[in-house]
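#lab-general

N.A. 3:47 PM
ok so I finally got the sequence cleaned up, no stray characters, all 159 residues accounted for. can someone with queue access submit it? mine expired

B.Y. 3:52 PM
send it over

N.A. 3:53 PM
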Amino acid sequence: MDASGRRMLHTFPVEASMKHLIARTLTSLSLAVLLLAGVVYAQPAPQVIRVKVPFEFVAGKHAFPAGEYSLVRTAPYLLVLRDAQGRTLATLITRSAESSPAPASAKLAFYDDGGQYRLAQVWQANDSIGQELYRPKANPVMARRRGAPIPGSAEASQP
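B.Y. 4:20 PM
back already:
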């Protein structure tokens, strides 16, 4: 209180107040960067399966010759099919499939559509959750000829 009985307000120089504001802002930004770095680091790396398919096959809407390919899981429900040179050939939408027990090695399963092999499932080694490709809708005659997935004789490996 001053001599007249009025209450005195504490005042700070503008310079000290600005330093405090800058320090709080920098601290908040640093914390945000650290948290975001943790989230980015926690994202799983793409899973890759290298495979030699000894027969012609269909994946999605495209047919492919026998040869060496890689399947890359880029997101929970996306597979990218690449040729031996790493060029993207197809992006495939999948859904989860379960297997008990988990396969000991990576493997692919194909449907036999009247002599034409269609990629059906992709399994990582030691993982009981695999990926199943959506089957295109077909006319009733084709639907009756479709069988259950058969394990393809494709040799798969993981890096």
